[in-house]
Structures are given as C-alpha cells and as structure tokens.
C-alpha cells in the first residue's frame, strides 16, 4: 500500500486584508488546524435558521466533523475564513469552502459552501469571500463549482446569480435549487 501523500503547504498567498462597509478591518485567510476552537465557537454561535440553511437540516456538526473542517488537505479542498479582532481575540465571521471530487474524473468539479455568522450578514462579506474562493478555485484548476440550497434561501440564490451561477430548481426535489458556475481556464 502506498504511503499517504504529504499534505500541501499552507497557501499563505491567499491571505488578504479587507474592510467592511463600515471600515472595520477584516482578515481573509485559509483555515488551518489551529482554528479548531475558533471554528467550533463560530458554528455553535450560528442561529438555527442559518445552520439549517447551511446544512439543509437541523443537525449540528459533530466534533469529528469540526476537526475535519479545520484540518484541510489544500490539494483537495480550500476553506477561507473571514476574521476580525474583538477585544484582543480573533473572531471568525464567515467561511467559504470548496471540496473537489474524489475520482480522477471529478477532481475538476468542486462542491462549495458558504456560511456567514448572523451578526455579519448583509454586509458584503459573503460576496467578498465567494469572489476570493472562485479566484482560488480557478487558479487551482477547478473547472466548476456546484452546490444545492433550499429553494427559499433567497439571499444565497441572489448572491449566486450576482456571481454568475446558473440557478435551477431541482426537478427531483422541488425543495432545493442547484447552483453551478463554470470557471474559465486559469490565467
């Protein structure tokens, strides 16, 4: 049996400073293993509605899932978080993620997700994070981002359309809409 591939180095080139509309400084960066406690607190702080829209169910991520969300194989996936300093401590505001398919035929297609903490919604953060994720995915050779969302998640559907995603109600499940974005070849 072959040894597992060595993990790829932390993509520090994706670290970016940005400002909210009100001028507050935000850091956008790839998540890393040391973020487990912060990411756990972020997920625990989501409202039931926001969590439901993200997971399409009322279930809460379990500790092993949260560990997996912060221990990323950067060759296979990427999670970008937005943070700011609150009372001297870094606080997570939102996260976007893509995960490539597992087979050679599907590595150019990635599922994506986005969730913004309730206090930071409607401030342009989801759009900024998604634009950063799209750029990083394109540079990594991802050819398509795809996901589903609840048909009544109007904010996500509006954002997807603004970013150029094709939005289509799922004929097999009218409770969800499919979101797809074809990415151009890397520049």
Overview of this protein structure:
The chain has 187 residues and is of the alpha+beta class. It has 5 helices and 8 strands; from the N terminus they run ββαααβββαβαββ. It has helices spanning 36-44, 48-55, 63-70, 125-139, 154-162; strands at residues 16-19, 25-30, 77-86, 89-100, 109-116, 144-150, 166-170, 173-182. Strands 1-2-3-4-5-6-8-7 form an 8-stranded mixed sheet, sandwiched between helices. Strand 1 and strand 2 (25-30) form a beta hairpin. The longest helix is centred in the last third of the chain and has 15 residues, at 125-139. The termini are far apart. The model is unreliable at 1-6 (pLDDT under 50).
Quick summary:
The protein has 5 helices and 8 strands. With 187 residues, the protein is α+β, with helices and mostly antiparallel strands.
Overall helicity: 25-40%
Secondary structural class: alpha+beta
How many helical elements?
A: 5
Q: What is the residue-averaged pLDDT?
A: 88
- How would you characterize the largest beta sheet? 8 strands, mixed
Task: Give me the secondary-structure topology.
Elements: E1 16-19, E2 25-30, H1 36-44, H2 48-55, H3 63-70, E3 77-86, E4 89-100, E5 109-116, H4 125-139, E6 144-150, H5 154-162, E7 166-170, E8 173-182
Parallel strand pairs: 5-6
Antiparallel strand pairs: 1-2, 2-3, 3-4, 4-5, 6-8, 7-8
Structural descriptors:
187 residues, disordered N terminus, eight-stranded mixed sheet, alpha+beta
């Amino acid at each position: 049996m072959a040894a597992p591939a060595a993990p790829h180095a932390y993509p520090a080139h994706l670290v970016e400073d940005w400002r909210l509309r009100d001028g507050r400084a935000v850091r956008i960066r790839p998540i890393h293993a040391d973020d487990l406690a912060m990411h756990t607190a972020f997920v625990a702080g989501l409202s039931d509605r926001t969590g439901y829209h993200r997971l399409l169910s009322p279930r809460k991520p379990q500790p092993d899932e949260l560990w997996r969300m912060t221990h990323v194989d950067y060759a296979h996936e990427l999670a970008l978080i937005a943070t700011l300093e609150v009372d001297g401590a870094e606080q997570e505001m939102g996260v976007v993620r893509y995960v490539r398919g597992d087979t050679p035929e599907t590595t150019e297609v990635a599922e994506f997700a986005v969730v913004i903490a309730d206090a930071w919604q409607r401030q342009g953060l989801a759009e900024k994070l998604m634009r950063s994720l799209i750029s990083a995915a394109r540079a990594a050779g991802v050819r398509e981002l795809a996901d589903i969302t609840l048909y009544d998640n109007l904010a996500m559907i509006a954002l997807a359309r603004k970013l150029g995603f094709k939005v289509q109600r799922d004929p097999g499940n009218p409770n969800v809409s499919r979101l797809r974005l074809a990415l151009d070849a890397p520049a």
